[in-house]
Specification:
This protein is α/β, with parallel strands linked by helices. It has a single domain, classed as NAD(P)-binding Rossmann-like Domain (Rossmann fold, 3-Layer(aba) Sandwich). Helix content is 44%, strand content 18%.
Length: 244
């Protein structure tokens, strides 16, 4: 798909990979609408894009079905169509054994349920228009391998992987390609839970992905018409990133 002139919708666009994806798609000529709860971060995203006329913020929570539906609807209403959706919003798994059971449930709500809901809304809008489209879901390398330190997060991301694989047939049915990316550790606010000292060491050794490197793979999946139901593992290699 040629991105120039397309309409994109991004979740979690106020920081990290979401912000980088908004900026990357706008730079390639897309009109971009994004949802996030962080209004200050959203203003920074719009400023960083350098194209305020192309980038529109919708305040909302991806776990609130009405907020998400309204944001997707606003993209269609404002720009007349919907071609690209990237479900990027996510949080980490802080403590499986926390006293508050809502802590781990929110991981599932944001990292899996909101991805399903965002995909459902996107498919409905794209089917209605009849022009096909591309959806990219953010999973994680942890969704492919066990992780004792973050089992709920791993479960949520594994759900995204298999959900995405199960939608491969949409490409043939209605021209909608759904793919997922599984990056290793990315230098985002979420990763700071590891501790600033450890993150500084990883940055120094260039063994951590940047949000911009991951966003570049979102763009590639949008542009590559051959991929449907693909699960792309993004890992850091000397001199750049590569896919396994």
């Amino acid at each position: 798909m040629d991105i120039e002139g397309r309409v994109a919708f991004i979740t979690g666009g106020a920081s990290g990979i979401g912000r980088a994806t908004v900026v990357a798609l706008a730079a390639r000529g897309a009109q971009v609408v994004f949802i996030d709860r962080d209004e200050d971060g959203a203003r920074q995203t719009i400023a960083r894009s350098g194209q305020p006329g192309r980038v529109v913020f919708c305040a909302g929570d991806v776990t609130d079905g009405e907020d998400l539906a309204a944001a997707v609807g606003s993209a269609v209403e404002r720009f007349g169509r919907l071609d690209i959706v990237a479900n990027i919003a996510g949080i980490g798994d802080d403590d499986l054994f926390a006293d508050d059971p809502g802590a781990w449930r929110r991981v599932i709500d944001i990292d899996l349920t909101a991805v399903i809901d965002g995909t459902r809304l996107a498919v409905r809008a794209m089917r209605r228009a009849g022009n096909g489209g591309v959806i990219v879901n953010l999973a994680s390398l942890i969704g492919l391998y066990p992780m004792a330190a973050a089992p709920v997060y791993a479960a949520a991301k594994a759900g995204v992987v298999h959900f995405t694989r199960s939608l491969a047939s949409l490409a043939g049915d209605c021209g909608i390609r759904v793919n997922a990316i599984c990056p290793e550790l990315v230098d985002t606010p979420l990763a700071l839970a590891m501790g600033e000292e450890q993150m500084a060491a990883l940055r120094a050794s260039q063994s951590v992905l940047t949000p911009e490197e991951v966003a570049a793979w979102v763009v590639r999946l949008v542009e590559d018409d051959s991929r449907a139901g693909a699960i792309v593992q993004i890992t850091k290699a000397e001199g750049g990133t590569y896919v396994e």
